[in-house]
Amino acid sequence: MPVEKPPRVPKLRTHKATGQGYVVLNGRAIYLGRTGLLVTERRYHQVIAEWLAAGQQPKFQLCDVTVKELLARYWCHAREYYRDAAGRRMSPRTASGCRSNSRRTAASTPPSPGATKPPPVRRPAL
Questions:
Q1: At what angle do helices 67-81 and 92-108 cross, to 10 degrees?
Q2: Which pLDDT belongs to residue 21?
Q3: 53-89 as b/e: b if 16+ CB within 10 A
Q4: Range 13-20 average pLDDT
Q5: Distance (Å, whole) CA 75 – CA 103
Q6: Distance (Å, whole) CA 123 – CA 121
């Protein structure tokens, strides 16, 4: 059985134009303050610790999450959590079936009663 690698921790970088320290987590740059300050390094360690504790997922507020992001997060969790009888991760064939099923379910689910409707599309008169 292959040995799993420890998570790769992103480095503290410096934005050359502004001199700000930043770290890139899941494709999003998080600016931490001026490079070389002790406060910046503390913020970096705090952000990395929170990111690792959250399973290498960024923090979010409930109102900011879309259905697509929620399904992507669940998919990451399911790949790690669900295993077959031998203890192996889900096979790509089984996994793709789960993804397509979740897409169908999300597409066919009616909006909740409190959800706002998008404005109607108005077409120009000819």
A1: 150
A2: 95
A3: eeeebeeeeeeeeeeeeeeebeeeeeeeeeeeeeeee
A4: 93
A5: 11
A6: 6
